[in-house]
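Q: I'm building a small set of examples for a reading group on sequence design. Run inverse folding on the following structure and report the sequence directly after it, with nothing in between.
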């Protein structure tokens, strides 16, 4: 695993609510230096990141329904449309955690299918955030089944704002329960080269990291 290959598996997270415009611009420049896969910015920063990275191989992703997934389906879809119009080429969508825990799997699948179909029709990739810290093992497995049915691009462990982030156990459950063609992204608490390589070893093809120097600097 060389440095360039590892960098292309990283979504550089820039989601802290306190980040200023200047910090977002500086972080985009650092991401460009390392040539990561994407910067994952707040929806309000998509235009800025797209402009800063217009001549870079680094692409722009953003979050939808963040961080709890409880906005309405209409709001999530409109948020997705705006993000795509502003330059996002990957969307990290939080499933409705409350509906998932209520067992309303039809709602969850219909909502995610609507957003996924729209995004993929625009050649935009979709990651579905489960927020595993709030889900049982059976709920994680069911969420994998739903996402496999609608053929999302990735399933993702966490927002990074829950009670815990990516764990080896949860990642293994997801790897074991998605269909071919659906990949797994680990997010939350991946702050060292050792943790990053472990997630890759388990089978993740993408992972979130906020501090690039702590991983790629090693």
């Amino acid at each position: 695993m060389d440095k360039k290959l590892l960098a292309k598996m990283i979504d550089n997270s820039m989601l802290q609510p306190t980040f200023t415009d200047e910090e977002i611009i500086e972080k985009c420049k650092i991401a460009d230096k390392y040539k990561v896969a994407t910067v994952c910015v707040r929806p309000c920063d998509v235009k800025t990141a797209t402009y800063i990275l217009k001549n870079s191989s680094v692409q722009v992703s953003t979050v939808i329904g963040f961080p709890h997934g409880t906005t309405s389906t209409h709001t999530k879809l409109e948020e997705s449309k705006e993000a795509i119009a502003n330059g996002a080429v990957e969307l990290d969508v939080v499933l409705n955690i409350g509906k998932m825990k209520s067992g309303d799997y039809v709602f969850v699948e219909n909502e995610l299918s609507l957003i996924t179909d729209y995004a993929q029709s625009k050649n935009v990739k979709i990651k579905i955030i489960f927020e595993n810290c709030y889900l049982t093992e059976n709920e994680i497995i069911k969420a994998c089944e739903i996402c496999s049915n609608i053929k999302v691009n990735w399933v993702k462990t966490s927002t990074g704002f829950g009670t815990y982030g990516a764990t080896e156990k949860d990642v293994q459950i997801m790897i074991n329960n998605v269909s071919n063609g659906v990949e797994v992204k680990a997010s939350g608490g991946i702050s060292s080269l050792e943790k990053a390589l472990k997630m890759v070893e388990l089978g993740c093809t993408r992972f979130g990291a906020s501090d690039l120097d702590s991983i790629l600097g090693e």
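The chain has one domain: 3-216.
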